[in-house]
Specification:
By secondary structure, the chain is an all-alpha fold. It has one domain. It has four helices and no strands. Helix 2 runs antiparallel to helix 3. It is elongated. The protein starts with 9 loop residues before the first helix and ends in a 5-residue tail after the last helix. The model has no long low-confidence stretch (mean pLDDT 86).
Amino acid sequence: IRQVLTLHNKEILSHLRETWVWPKKFFFTRQPIEDIRQYFGVKIALYFCWISFYTKALCLPALYGIIIWFYTGRNQY
C-alpha cells in the first residue's frame, strides 16, 4: 500500500454546499471559513480567504476600467 485516502463525509459536504456553494448565495455573503478549515484544513481555508479578498479588491478597479473604456470609446483599437 502506497497511499491511503479518506472518503468525504456527505453530511458535512451537504452543509458546505448549502452555506457556501449554491449560486443563490449573494456575491458578498461571508464564506464559512471556519467550516472550510475544519473540513479541508488550514491551507485550503487560507486559499479561499485570499481568493475572496482578491476578488472583492478587484471589483473597484474593474468598475473604474469599464467606465474609462466607455468614456474613451470602445472602438479605439
